[in-house]
Each structure stands twice: as structure tokens, then as C-alpha cells.
Amino acid sequence: MEQTADGEDSRPLLRDVITVSGAFEGSEDIAVARDLARGFLTDVQAVHGLPVSQRAMGMVQLVVSELVTNARKYAPGPCLLTLEINGGAIEVSVWDSNPTPPAILAPDPTRIGQHGLEIVMAVGQSFAIHREPVGKRITTAIVLADAPGGDAAGRQL
Predict the structure, then answer these.
(1) Cα distance between residue 90 and residue 52, in whole Å
(2) H/E element, 150
(3) Cα–Cα distance between 148 and 93 in angstroms, integer?
(4) Kind and range of the H or E element at 59?
(5) For the residues 122-137, what does the mean pLDDT come to?
(6) Is 115 helix (H, G, I), strand (E, B) or coil?
């Protein structure tokens, strides 16, 4: 048992989980999803004291925009965005009702459009597509604080 100087147990009873979710149905909701992400990260920094770099703030909003846009464009019905702090990163997860995994195209600078997943994979620390009992979930993680000598995904150079 870990104890403080006054003899009390210093272990937290539960690990704090910091998360927020939102459901989105219309294309106008893409801006609302970005606002949810920005507000969540602002609260994470102000209320919980976790560092959030300006780069992370921008990257999370970009990833949210790309993933929610794809879900709204290619799947019927609403999509669900979940943001969760996990270690020093934010996990961005978007569920939609279409069970078909997205086509991941090879980088092509001459292609007009369809670069969303390419961008998400480039800026994220991880990327995964999970089939769900209904639909699929796409998840990526973005480092919250810039690491000295690291790239945009928090990887050491």
C-alpha cells in the first residue's frame, strides 16, 4: 500500500477517464464536431491541467473533420464521434453504420480529392479500422504535447 506522510493511501480509487462523445447526422454538423473537439481539448488543458499543443489542437480538429465528413458522405444515418484521453494522446474514434471498410488509396499528388484517410494516417500516432456488430469504427490517436525532436505524430526523428 502506498501511503502519504500522514499515513493515508495515496493511490487513486479509479483512474480518471476523460472522454466526450457526440452524434452527428447532417453535413452542417461537421463544424459542430470540430467545435466539440476544440472545446474538449480546451477543457482538458484548463480543468485537468494536461498540456495540449497548438499543433495537437489543429490536428485533432482536422482529423475529426475528415473522419466525420467521410462517415456522413458514405454511411446512412448518424455517426458517433468519441474523444478520449489515453496517456499523453487523444484517441479520436468515429463509428458509422456502413460495414464496408474505406478504400485506402496510395498517395497520389495528382489526384483531386479523396485524401482524407491519407491525411489522418499521416498525422496520427496509430490508425485502425474495426468492424462492429453494426457498421465500423475508425480510430486514430494524436499526441497532445509536442515532443522535442519529434514529428507531427509524436514519433522521434
Answers:
(1) 10
(2) none
(3) 27
(4) helix 54-74
(5) 95
(6) coil
Indicate whether this model's pTM tops 0.90. Answer: no
Which pLDDT score is estimated for 112? 82
User: Does the CA dihedral 29-31-34-39 come out positive or negative?
Assistant: negative
Q: What is residue 81's three-state secondary structure?
A: strand
Q: Return the amino acid letter for 143.
A: V
- Using the structure block, give the residue that is written with the C-alpha cell 494516417: 121
pLDDT one-digit tens code per residue, 35-81: 999 999 999 999 989 999 999 999 999 999 999 999 999 999 999 99
What is the rounded distance in angstroms from the CA atom of residue 57 to the CA atom of residue 61? 6
Q: Find, among 77, 67, 15, 14, the residue nearest to 36 by Cα.
A: 67
* Residue 155 backbone phi and psi in degrees, to 5: -85, 140
Copy the grid coordinates of residue 32. Answer: 459542430
Residue 137's CB is within 10 A of a number of other CB atoms, namely 16
